[in-house]
Amino acid sequence: MSDRGGVLVPVAPSPTLEETVSHAVDVARETGGGIHLVRTVPGHHVGRETLESDEQVLERAEQRAREASPDGFPVSATLLGAQRYIAGPTEHVEYFLGYADKHDLAGIVVDPEYSIDATAPTLQSLESLFADAGFTYEIAPVSTGGWRPTSGELLRASVAGVIAFGFYLVLGGTVYGFLDPFVLGSGVVTGLIAGGLLRNVAFETTPSVGPVLSTIGRGILFVPYLLWEITKANVQFAYVVLHPRLPIDPRLDRVDAAVGSGMSVTAFANSITLTPGTLTVDAHGHHLLIHSLNASAQEDLFEGVHERPVRYLFYGRESLELPGPAERGDAEPLIGPDAPDVVEDATNATTTETNGADESDGGAGTDGDDDE
Amino acid sequence: MTLVTALVVLFVALGVFFTFVAAVGMIRLPDVYSRSHAATKADTLGAGFAILAVAVYFGTLGEVIRGAFLLVFIYYTNPTAAHAITRAAYSRGIDVWTTEENRQEESR
C-alpha cells in the first residue's frame, strides 16, 4: 500500500467543484502523488453534442487544480466512457475503480455535491461502493452553503408534482367528479409531496420541453406497435405450448443494448420479456442476459427487432440506422445450440459474462490513457 | 344478443383462452426459465383481454381510463417479476434446459 500515491476526483458540474479540487490537491501532496480528475460520460450523452459540456467541466476542474498546486505537480484529466454507454451509478463507479486500480491511486476524494446527472446520490451511496472496493475515500470538507434547490431541481419537482396531481385527478375525478373540492384539495397536497420527494428520483435528466414532447409523440406510435407484438408473441406461444410435441429449443445469450440510461434499458428489457419467445434473465448495466424459447426468437433479438423500436422511442428516427446487436458484435450465445462449447452449468456462464464486461471496461481505460 | 354483449363474450373468451395457455405452459414447459415465458406473455395478454371486457361492459370513461392504468401497471410489473424470479434462479446456478442436453439424457 505504501507505494501507492495520488488521489482520484470524480468530476461533475457542481458549485463546490473548485473547492473540492483544491482540497484534493492538498490530500494528493500528502500521499506523494498527483491528482487525477476523472469525468465519466453519462450514457445518454454519447453521440450527442453534449459531450462538449463534459469536456468543459473537466477543463474547469483541471484549471483549478493547476492554480492550487505548485509548478510541476502532476495533474491529469481524463474523460472515461465516451465510446460506451454507461448505464447507472454502479457502472460509473466501476469505471472510477478500474481507473484507480490501474494507476495505483491511494484514495478518492468525493465532492459532497457530486451527482451523476440528475440521478440522486441519495438513491445509492457512491461512497459505500467506493469503501467496499477497499479504497480510502473522503468527502471533501467544503462548505455547501446549506441546502438550496437548484433550478433543475425545482423544474423536476414541479413536473413530477404536476404528473402526480394529474394521475390523482384522473383516478379520483372519475369517481367523485373532477371539480369535487376534496379531490382537488387533496390532489394538490399529494402533488406537492410527490414532487418534493421524487424530484431527484423520477427523472434521469432534467426534462426539457422539446425532447419530452417528441418522446411522447413517438410513444404514441410505440405503444400500439408493442401491443401488436405482444399479441403476435402470444399466438406463437399458444401454438408452441399446445403443440403435442412441444417444439422448443431454448438458449441463453448475452446482448449489449445500445441504449444508454436506466430508463431505456428497463424499457428494452421489459419489451424483450413481453415479445416473441424472449425473456430477460439478468441485467448488468447495458449487458443483458436473455433466454430465448426457440431459434427464430433468438434471430429476431440478434437482428435488433426489439432494440430498434426502443431506440426510436428514446433517441428518435436517426437511431434506426444503427445495425443490430449481432452485426455490432454485441451479441454472444452462452448456452444452447449456438454456444461455442456446451457449458456444463449456469455458473460457468456467469464467469464468462463477467469476463466480457471486464474486457470492455479495460478498453475504455485505454481510451482514457490516450487523452492524458 | 347485442353488440356489446357479443364483444364482452369475445374478450372474456380470449382472456380465458390465453390464461389457459399460460397454465398449460406452466405445466408442460421444462424449466424455470421457459416457464417464466408462460407466466409473462400469455398471462399478460389474458389479463389485458379481461380488462378490455370490463371496460366494454361498463363503457364509461372512468372505467376505460382506470382499465388503461391497470393495463399499464400489469405490463410494467409482470416482466419485472419474471425478471426477478429468473435472475434469482440464474444466480443460484439453476441449469438452462436445452434440447441437446435432453437428447443426451434420452440416449443414455
UniProtKB/TrEMBL annotation, chain B:
<dbReference type="GO" id="GO:0015385">
    <property type="term" value="F:sodium:proton antiporter activity"/>
</dbReference>
<keyword id="KW-0472">Membrane</keyword>
<keyword id="KW-0812">Transmembrane</keyword>
<dbReference type="Pfam" id="PF03334">
    <property type="entry name" value="PhaG_MnhG_YufB"/>
</dbReference>
<protein>
    <submittedName>
        <fullName>Monovalent cation/H+ antiporter subunit G</fullName>
    </submittedName>
</protein>
<feature type="transmembrane region" description="Helical">
    <location>
        <begin position="47"/>
        <end position="76"/>
    </location>
</feature>
<dbReference type="InterPro" id="IPR005133">
    <property type="entry name" value="PhaG_MnhG_YufB"/>
</dbReference>
<keyword id="KW-1133">Transmembrane helix</keyword>
